[in-house]
Amino acid sequence: MRFLVLSSLFLVCVFSLSAQRVSTNTFAKELRPKFESEKYQASIDVIGKHLSGILIFKRQEDSSIRVAFVNEIGMTFFDMSFYDESYTFHSIAHNLNKKAVKISLAKDIGMILLRGIFKENATSTSRSTVQLPAEPLEKYSFPLKRKGIVVYQRKRNEREIPLIENFGKKKKIITITQNYTDKNSMPERIFVEHHTVRFTILLKRLHVTE
Amino acid sequence: MKPNLILIICLLFGQVLLAQPSGFSPVKDLLPFKSQFALASQKVESIESNFTQIKNLSLLKDKIQSKGKFYYKKGNKVRIEYSSPYYYLMVLNQNAMTIKDDQKTSSYNTKSNKMMQSINNIMLDCMRGTIYGNKDFMVDALEGPKEYLLKMKPITATMKKIFAHIEVFLDKKDFHVLRLNLVECNGDNSLMTFTQPMLNKNLSDALFSVK
C-alpha cells in the first residue's frame, strides 16, 4: 500500500501532461527557424530517380521565404515562395511538373519552414507538455490544409526541433529528423523520409562564403 | 510621325541593342569563320582545364560559386569534376553519362534526359567546332576585339522551355572556349569560365569511366 501511494505521488510529480488550444499561427511563428539565407547540399530520391544539387532558403523583404533547388551544373529544378499561409511555385523543371510531386515538395519544405501548409486559425492546434525527469518535451500539433496533422517535438525552452512527424488518419506518413550543431541556427542535417512511397530528401548544410 | 510608330521603332531599336552585347558586332564573313573554327577544333585531341561556375539566381538576388576540373578527349568524352562547394563528378562517354555524388553513382543514357543531352551536346559542339550542326539552336556569330561570341537561340519546343539563350565565348587566337553562359527562361544564368587550359595532353581513358 505504501509503495502504491509513493509510486502514485512520483508519477504525479514527474509526469504531468498539459494541453493548450491556440491558433496555428501563434505556435507556428514561435517554432519557425530563424535565418536570413542558408544553402544545403541536397539529394532527393523519388521512385528510383536520384536528383542532387543545392537547395537555397532566402528570406525576402516581405518576410516570405524563397526556396530554390538548382543542380550542380546550374540548372534550376524548382523555385518557390512560402508565405505565412500559402505557397507558390515560380518555376519547376518540366519532368517534375506534376501535381503530386509539387504538393509533396511543398509539404516537405513547408513542414521544415512551418509555413504555407497549415490550416489558418485552426482551433485544434495544441501544445502538450510531457515532463520527464531528464528530458521535458513539448509537442505541437498543427492540422494541414490538406489531410493530416504535423507534430513537432522539442525539448522545453530550446529552439531545436529534432523530430517532425506527419500523420494521416491511420498511419504515419512522413518523418523528418533534424540534427543541430549550433542551437541558434538552422539544422546541420535534415532527413525527410516518406513511409508510404519511396521518397527521401537529405539536406546537408553548406558553409560557403560568396 | 505618329507617336505609336515612334514607340515601335524605339522598341525595335532597343531590342537590337539588347540582343547584341556591348563590344561585339556580327561576324562579317561567316564562311571563313566557320571553317577556321572547325579546323582549329579538329586539331584538339584533348583539353584539361580548371573552371569556375557562377550561378546567378536573379529573383533571389543570390549566387552560388562552384569550382573544379574539366577534361575533354576526342571521341565524345567529357569529365566535369567539381571540388567546391562539395565533390561531384559528371562523366560523359559517348551517350552514357555517369554522375557520382557522396550518396550514390547513377548512370543515364543522355538520350533519355533532354536537359543533360542538350548541355552535353553544347559542350561537345564547342570542343569539336560543330555548333552550327546543333539542330536545337540557331547560332549568331559576333566578334569583339579579342573574342568571338556565339549566341545560341533555342528553336525546338523542348529547348525553349529550358533556355532563353546560350552564349559561347571563344578566344580569337585559337578558338578555344573561354566562357559558357547558360541563360534560363526565368532570367537565372550559369556562367562557366575556363582557365589554364592544357591542350593535347595525353589523358588516360580511365578518367572517363567511373567505377
Q: Overview of this structure, please?
A:
The complex is a heterodimer of chains A (210) and B (211). Chain A has 210 residues and is of the alpha+beta class. Helices cover 17% and strands 43% of the residues of chain A. Chain A has helices at 2-14, 24-31, 99-113; strands at residues 17-21, 37-46, 49-59, 65-70, 76-82, 87-92, 126-130, 137-143, 149-155, 163-167, 172-179, 189-194, 199-206. Residues 9-18 of chain A have low confidence and may be disordered. Chain B is of the alpha+beta class and 211 residues long. Chain B has a single domain (23-201), classed as outer membrane lipoprotein receptor (LolB), chain A. Helix content of chain B is 24%, strand content 44%. Chain B has helices at 3-19, 30-42, 114-128, 157-162; strands spanning 25-26, 46-57, 62-73, 77-84, 88-93, 96-100, 105-109, 137-143, 147-154, 163-171, 177-184, 189-199. In chain B, strand 4 and strand 5 (88-93) form a beta hairpin. The longest helix of chain B has 17 residues, at 3-19. Chain B is globular. The N and C termini of chain B lie far apart (70 Å). Chains A and B meet through strand 2, strand 3 and strand 4 of A and strand 2, strand 3, helix 3, helix 4 and strand 12 of B.
Main structural class of chain B: alpha+beta
| Amino- and carboxy-terminal Cα gap of chain B | 70 Å
Instruction: Output the structural class of chain A.
Output: alpha+beta
| Annotated CATH homologous superfamily of chain B | Lipoprotein localisation LolA/LolB/LppX
Can you tell me the residue ranges of chain B where pLDDT is under 50 for at least 5 consecutive residues? 10-18
- The value of Rg of chain A in angstroms is 19 Å
**Largest sheet of chain B, order of strands side by side?**
1-8-9-10-11-12-2-3-4-5-6-7
CATH architecture of chain A: Clam
Please indicate the count of domains of chain A: 1
Strand content of chain B: 35-45%
Shape of chain A: globular
